[in-house]
Amino acid sequence: MTDPLLQIKNLSVDFATDQGQLHAVRNASFNVGQGKIIGLVGESGCGKSTLASAVIRLMDDNATVRADGIVFEKENLMDLSSEKMRAMLGEKISMIFQNPMTALNPVLSIGTQMTDIQHRKKLSRAQKREAAAAMLGKVGIPDPLERLAQFPHEFSGGMRQRICIAMALLSRPALIIADEPTTALDVTMEAQIVHLLKELQQEMGCAIICVSHHLGMIAELCHEVVVMYAGQIIEQGEIRDIFKSAAHPYTRCLLACDPANIKESPGHLPTIKGEIPNLIQLPQGCIFYDRCPERLDLCAERSPVPEPLKKGHWAACHLISKGRLS
Ligand SMILES: Nc1ncnc2c1ncn2[C@@H]1O[C@H](COP(=O)(O)OP(=O)(O)OP(=O)(O)O)[C@@H](O)[C@H]1O
Ligand SMILES: [Mg+2]
Fold first, then answer.
1. What's the predicted TM-score (pTM) here?
2. 50 C-alpha to center of ligand 1: Å?
3. Ligand 1 within 6 A of 28 CB?
4. 281 falls within a domain
5. What is the CATH number of the domain that holds 57?
6. Which residues surround ligand 2, an ion (CB under 5 A)?
7. Does 241 fall in a domain?
């Protein structure tokens, strides 16, 4: 067995706010295997972006990050100087954001941005331009050499996201963190980008952590799924475990509310009743208690611990230990 590429051990992130500390991520642990695609899912505000950004230390100033380790290729990222972390981001870990315009500089040509990003490589400028054009060709941009001279606004939204993917791949990273990479795109464009990501991932063998609201995309792209609720990972499993035999009531609610799973149109999109609890004053007991359709009395008092279901699949729910899983 090879070591996982990334091990996130007991990661917690708090944000200082006027009302007190907001506990955005609590005791999150999971591994990313070499070449695996992990989907990070959960409702808005569950801490997905915070968790993903904490790995690469891309945090707002009011954040406090604690962890027993964020170990990437045997190196604890928590121990790296800012300089070393920046080098790591240029070479081994890349990020793809939801809005390609935030990642691209509007006043520089694509060619300049794509050569600048290779500043660590010992190549001539011409060679860097060639590498950039080759990567643009790979992500499906026609006439890549000519288009290097163009600026971001001269490309469509889908094309811009392809350029961001090309930039993320240029350093041939071992890990890509993609936060809602297709949310800003229409459905057709989303399908194309998912297909492209999958193809490139297979070719290059990198691992991906993909944050998304869109379960259909997760099902198509990912090998494993990590489900977050109100800052905690409440279930994790291989794609089939989650989509065919989800154990946690929250995961099941999420799946039931996915438009793709709704057979007859109810006239409105179903949502999970209630809201995420206040992350500043956390309730006692199970974090999903208030909204859980299957709660037991015990759930109000005691936080459930992770219970293994099968290899690689676990959930934190009292129904499992009580043998009450339906
Ligand atoms: N800088 C900050 N200061 C205070 N609270 C923050 C800050 N950044 C995020 N939060 C809070 O942390 C919690 C988790 O936010 P996060 O953006 O990680 O959620 P998310 O799961 O990515 O949501 P979405 O699906 O909407 O992107 C939210 O309650 C959010 O309001
Ligand atoms: Mg987010």
1. 0.94
2. 6
3. no
4. yes
5. 3.40.50.300
6. 49
7. yes
